[in-house]
Amino acid sequence: MLRATVVFIALVAALIGGAPAAFAQAPEPSVSTTYGSATPAYLSGTESPRSGAGPTVIKDGFGLNPPTLMADPGSVVTITLADDADAVVAFLGAETLPVAPAGEHAYAVTVPAGAVLPQSFAFRVESSGERTLLTDSWVLQLGPEPAQAAAPEPTPAAVTPAPVQGPAVPTSLRLRGARLAVVMRCPVASTGGCEGGSLTLKWGSRRVARIAVGRLPAGASTTARTHLAARLLRQLRRHRVRTLRGTFTPVSGAPVVVGRLALR
Q1: What phi and psi values does residue 201 have, to the nearest 5 degrees?
Q2: What is the domain-level CATH number for residue 252?
Q3: 7-28 per-residue burial string, b: 16 or more CB within 10 A, e: under 16
Q4: DSSP result, the chain
Q5: Pick from 26, 35, 27, 30: which is nearest to 102 by CA?
Q6: How do residues 107-160 score in pLDDT, each as one tens digit?
Q7: Do the domain assignments include residue 1?
Q8: Among 62, 109, 176, 232, which is 20 to 30 Å from 87 by CA?
Q9: Among its keywords, does the record have Signal (predicted)?
Q10: Is 91 among the domain residues?
Q11: In which domain, by residue range, is 174 found?
Q12: Does the pLDDT value for residue 19 go beyond 80?
């Protein structure tokens, strides 16, 4: 009984020792363009005996979540492997592309000048061992250079309106004895205020008075006064003058006729 058990164990050990090793995925390659590099997604692989006698082991990676690598039509894509290869075959979509050696373990593939990107870029690496033939396939997406977002137009600087400056306006005219008083007001709309000047009052063609007026802020008013000569005062009373024509001349501007003012 003991002898039979030992023989059985020896047979099992021999079977285990003689079993083929599990299929191992090839080391990851690198794919690069002038924009950068990426590690492609594993697509599939096979392992077959050189003699042709025996099963072919197949492994699927399904090419899940392939990265996107920027490239241009007419540009060169470089595949760099970790080990030697017997051959490298490349595809852009369904089109087979020429592959040229580009250094140790490196291969160059030119993207067709008329290629429309993005497209799937896949390549198959064929290699051989002492007893086996191996293939490994990888995939990624070749995408166009991302469009440059248009630079936002600069926000125009807020324009502060220039302050409006207008002439002061006489609002009332009073005569008390020989004293003539006129109230001058700067309109609120004149945000820059009203510059000073002189108010000329006429009766017909005769000048009755010229009164100096100082600068006024917007919305402000002031009373300017002057004395009339006795002779002029008598003439105004004799002719019962009730209105005077006013003209305001600002310091830096042309005269502005302000109309007739009632003399009270």
Answers
A1: -110, 130
A2: 2.60.40
A3: eeeeeeeeeeeeeeeeeeebee
A4: -HHHHHHHHHHHHHHHHHSPPPP-PPPP-EEEETTEEEPPEEEEEEEEETTS-SPPEEEE-TT-S--EEE--TT-EEEEE-SS--SEEEEEETTEEE-EEE-STTEEEEEPPTT--SSEEEEEEEEEE-SSEEEEEEEEEEEEPPPPPPPPPPPPPPPPPPPPP----EEEEEEEETTEEEEEEE--TT-TT-B--EEEEEEETTEEEEEEEE--B-TT-EEEEEEE--HHHHHHHHHTT--EEEEEEEETTS--EEEEEEEB-
A5: 30
A6: 999 999 999 999 999 999 999 888 889 999 999 999 886 666 677 888 888 877
A7: no
A8: 62
A9: yes
A10: yes
A11: 169-262
A12: no
pLDDT digits (tens, 9 = 90+) for 194-247: 888 888 989 888 888 888 888 889 889 899 899 888 888 888 888 888 888 888
Nearest Cα residue to 125 out of 165, 97, 85, 161 = 85
If you search the block for the tokens 């309109």, which residue do you land on? 187
Q: Are residues 177 and 108 part of one domain? A: no
